Amino acid sequence: MQWEKDAEQAMSRVPFFVRKRVKKKVEAMAGDSGATMVTMVHVEACRQRFMTNQEKEVKGFQVETCFGAGGCPNAIANHGDMADRLEKTLAALNLKEFMRAKVDGPLKMHHEFRVSISDCPNSCSRPQIVDIGLIGAAMPTITAADCSRCEACITACREHGITLAAQGPAINFDMCLACGQCYQNCPTETLRPHKKGFRILLGGKLGRHPQLGRELNTIFSPDETMTIVEKCLAHFMAHNEKGERFGELLNRTGYDFLKPLAILKKLGCP
Ligand code: SF4
Ligand code: SF4
Ligand code: SF4
Which of helix, strand or coil describes residue 255? Predict the structure, then answer.
């Protein structure tokens, strides 16, 4: 749907973490009234409805994504399937009713459990500041294919994680963010992806006491990621006090609840 310039500008001032949802609601409201273009009248009407009944607008959880699936050349993971799986898992938990029973007073947007997926380490959807953040990642490896010494990988690596020795490239994994740029630019396939999947960050939040999510120290396949997410949600629901954010809960309980997971034992983390 088309947007009038004023309405578009007003939307750009909506906080990023609710912008996508608000935009959808304004467009639905405009559509219901038979309009083909969104104007300030629709934006204002939507704002009024939201301010007078915020609890009704609360869904209990949010799954946000970056624009990687829209064709961003930096995308490593394809979040489409993962976002659907997360939506289904979160919807089945009825988190809105769960939080309503925990929170004193009306539910607000910040009570929602938030998961954010970015398809590369540029992290456009800010996975560091949500309850569970996923970052698409691919760890490079060196194959037996001959290196042409073109230095494309060195130019591509913004972390200065690659050097060229006499026998070919060397990767400094302490500097590597698993962004995949080096192997994507390697013409000889000397560099190839070793494991593709997601980095996982837990317990990030903004608010009065902001903190970045703590990262588990490896890359997880989509199935492994879902196993960890389900374990985190079970822990969140078993130990939540007064609707606290996952990060606050983890500060109180620690991360030992993850240790029995076979995949984490196998991978040697957190
Ligand atoms: S996070 Fe990466 S893949 Fe997603 S939109 Fe940003 S640059 Fe593109
Ligand atoms: S994956 Fe990214 S950060 Fe890691 S070595 Fe390659 S280009 Fe550098
Ligand atoms: S991009 Fe590939 S071929 Fe070129 S220097 Fe790096 S490893 Fe060698």
Answer: coil
Ligand nearest to the CA of 126: 1
Q: What superfamily does domain 59-137+196-267 belong to in CATH?
A: Sulfite Reductase Hemoprotein, domain 1 (3.30.413.10)
DSSP-derived 3-state class of residue 202:
strand
What are the pLDDT digits (tens) for 123-135?
999 999 999 999 9
Write down the pTM of the prediction: 0.85
CATH number at 1-52:
1.10.8.550
| Euclidean distance between CA atoms 232 and 246, whole angstroms | 9
Assess contact for 116 and 237: CB atoms under 8 A: no
Q: Is 206 in the pocket of ligand 1 (CB under 6 A)?
A: no
CATH T-level fold of 139-195: Alpha-Beta Plaits (3.30.70)
Using one digit for the tens of pLDDT, what is the confidence trace for 5-27? 999 999 888 877 678 878 888 99
pLDDT at 18: 74
CA of 68 to the centre of ligand 1 (A): 5
Rounded to 10 degrees, the C-alpha dihedral 240/128/92/65 comes to 160
Residues with CB under 6 A from ligand 2: 140, 156-157, 159, 161-162, 171, 176-182
Residue ranges per domain, the chain?
1-52, 59-137+196-267, 139-195
Ligand nearest to the CA of 179: 2
Residues with CB under 6 A from ligand 3: 147-153, 164, 169, 185-188, 190-191
